[in-house]
Design a protein that fits this description.
The protein has 89 residues and is α/β, with parallel strands linked by helices. It contains 4 helices and 3 strands. It is 46% helix and 13% strand. Strands 1-2-3 form a 3-stranded parallel sheet.
Length: 89
């Protein structure tokens, strides 16, 4: 693409479970995207799915800061990604 994406968001709200092969698929997706300079982020994982991400090492792989409670939170973070830091008094 002329303007390739910098983030890809996986909306996990409807994912009830991640088995071993699903975890490996996410691992491979992360590797392919990061090889292209694209950040994989996840939005709205169920608590049980978040636990499985932790167990499979996916949270460490993609980063806890790349897992958002809502899609809106992911979009907000994307919008702020290049904003300069503001010093707080």
């Amino acid at each position: 693409a002329d303007d390739p994406p910098t983030w890809i968001c996986l909306d996990a709200a409807a994912i009830p479970d991640v088995d071993y092969s699903g975890g490996e698929t996410i691992r491979q997706l992360h590797g392919a995207l990061s090889g292209e300079g694209i950040k994989l982020v996840v939005a709205e994982p169920l608590p049980s799915v978040r636990e499985l991400f932790d167990r499979y090492g996916l949270t460490d792989l993609i980063g806890a800061d790349a897992i958002f409670p809502t899609v809106e939170d992911a979009v907000d973070a994307y919008s702020r990604r290049d904003a300069p830091a503001v010093d707080q008094p």
